[in-house]
Design brief:
Helix 4 links the parallel strand 4 and strand 5. This protein has a single domain, classed as NAD(P)-binding Rossmann-like Domain (Rossmann fold, 3-Layer(aba) Sandwich). It is built from eight helices and nine strands. The chain is α/β, with parallel strands linked by helices. The strands form two sheets. The protein has a seven-stranded parallel β-sheet with strand order 3-2-1-4-5-6-9, sandwiched between helices. It has a two-stranded parallel ribbon with strand order 7-8. Helix 1 crosses helix 6 and helix 4 packs parallel to helix 5. It is globular and about 55 Å long. Helices cover about 45% and strands about 15% of the residues. The N and C termini lie far apart (about 45 Å).
Length: about 240
């Protein structure tokens, strides 16, 4: 079976969207390097994929170890065609809670680590004059929400970063893709009642279609595009009176 992305790397791949993406890409014939902290889950992915998913245990917050791990993965794959940063955290935050430890974790995992890994992939793709750089952001980054100020800020930052990378790298033949899912059934959202929730399998199918179809931005599912257009354009004096 031919694949659009023979050599792929997914950061944040032990469960949810990342794990499902790894298996779907492996099913097209790709070799997929999967990075996450949990070795057992990575080994299970490798077994499910008949060895096409290659497991790499690593913590995205171990900034000192990341460059060497990235280089080792690229060497093991024999190059790189697709990079996806999917790692993310969203700890529960009460409306009147101001917890810097939780805030720092979200900024570091959702944004700073994404920048470090994506910078490494971007430099590789720029030198190769080819490649697809993809970040999984969120519809939450489209507007600051009262219930999760720092989560929305981390995703807004990620969206802006990938837009800037798109403007930087397009001239070198590199495609930069921003994925903006709505609520997805994953361990991160367990127990939450959220609108328009879809499964990780549905999300992964739409993401693969966007990647293979040449998209540079995709709302997942697509109904979120018109919804977020409206949300972004609600005047602030009205927005502050909502429960969003």
């Amino acid at each position: 079976m031919s694949t659009a992305f023979p050599r792929a790397l997914i950061v944040g791949a032990s469960s949810g969207i990342g794990a499902t993406l790894a298996l779907k890409l492996a099913g097209t014939g790709a070799k997929v390097a999967a990075v996450a902290r949990r070795q057992a889950e990575l080994d299970a992915l490798a077994a499910q994929s008949n060895g096409r998913v290659l497991p790499y245990a690593g913590d995205v917050l171990d900034y000192a170890a990341t460059p060497a791990l990235f280089d080792r993965i690229v060497d093991d794959l024999g190059g790189l065609d697709l990079f996806i940063y999917n790692a993310g955290v969203m700890p529960p935050v009460e409306e009147s809670e101001y917890n810097f430890d939780k805030d720092r974790q979200m900024i570091e995992v959702n944004f700073l680590a994404a920048v470090q890994w994506s910078n490494l992939a971007a430099a590789h793709f720029e030198a190769a004059r080819a490649g697809v750089l993809c970040g999984v952001s969120s519809v939450a980054g489209e507007r600051g929400r009262r219930g999760s100020p720092v989560y929305t800020a981390s995703k807004a930052g990620l969206t802006a970063y990938f837009e800037a990378m798109r403007n930087r790298l397009t001239r070198y033949g590199v495609r930069v893709v921003t994925i903006k899912p709505g609520p997805v059934e994953t361990p991160m959202t367990a127990g939450l009642k959220l609108p328009l929730m879809i499964t990780a399998d549905q999300a992964a199918n739409e993401i693969v279609s966007a990647l293979e179809g040449g998209a540079t931005e995709a709302f997942v599912p697509g109904i979120w595009r018109p919804i977020m257009f409206v949300v972004r354009n609600v005047p602030s004096f009205v927005f502050t009176k909502t429960n969003i």
